[in-house]
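Issue 218. Parser rejects a valid record. Input:
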Amino acid sequence: MPAGLLLAAGAGSRMGRPKALVHDQRGSWLQRAVAVLREGGCHPVVVVLGAAPEAADLLPDGVRAVHAADWSEGMGASLRAGLAELEDGTATQVVVTLVDLPDLVPAVVRRLVDAAGQVGPAALARAAYDGEPGHPVLIGRDHWAGVRDVARGDRGARDLLAAGDVLLVECRDLAGGQDVDALPPAP
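Output the parser choked on:
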């Protein structure tokens, strides 16, 4: 079973507040993203926080929060902190997703895990939407050190994924795959 890693450390400057604290008509983005990972088959689930450490109070029992002290550096810092938290565990794969994908559903995670699950620790896979790579991303343990080496700024694992043999798993029939940087104006 893969671990789940939710990156939720940013300040959400375009949003006007940390995305880990955003709620919409369907509830907390943070809680929904955790549920998507859990229901998609991930265990354990680790959430990386930074700008809003108080968001840890929103997490359900059994979900681990880790604080990325250098969160303001960008997504790379969050990814490094999350992988470090998982390093001593038994997971051979991790599904990485972002808190600002409010239309993500567990079926996307399950499809990604099912498609790459048999590859084991050598797996590299990501959801695609109309053929365009997106999130979540599944990274086998064999690649974790390489991800930590390249994860800088807001690039995360992008360079490793661009250079590697990555399985694209089409998911447009399940979700849109778009991150949200601003809430729509209130009616």
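Fixed in the parser; the record now loads. The chain is about 25% helix and 25% strand.
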